[in-house]
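Write out a record, fold above all:
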Amino acid sequence: QRIITGLTGELAMKDLGPLHFFLGIKVTRTPAGFFLCQQQYAEDVLDRAGMDTCRPSPTPVDTKGKLPAANGPRVDDASAYRSTAGALQYLGITR
């Protein structure tokens, strides 16, 4: 409480109470400390990409495959592609 009071005096902020979910990370308080989990965020990303029914694979891509720089079919919705790529990047960075 003392830290919150001190921060409120220095910054414009509000105490919204106990934290449960923040920026895609579920927060669970235990006697040992905090437990952070991104399972729900990962499931939401898979659902948005239409891959929620796919089965897991240890290596989902060919590690030796070479893709051409500019040839091949374009994605239907570049914005959705960028959104999914960004969500996966965020998931990997925050892990």
About this structure: The chain has a mean pLDDT of 84. The longest strand covers residues 25-30.
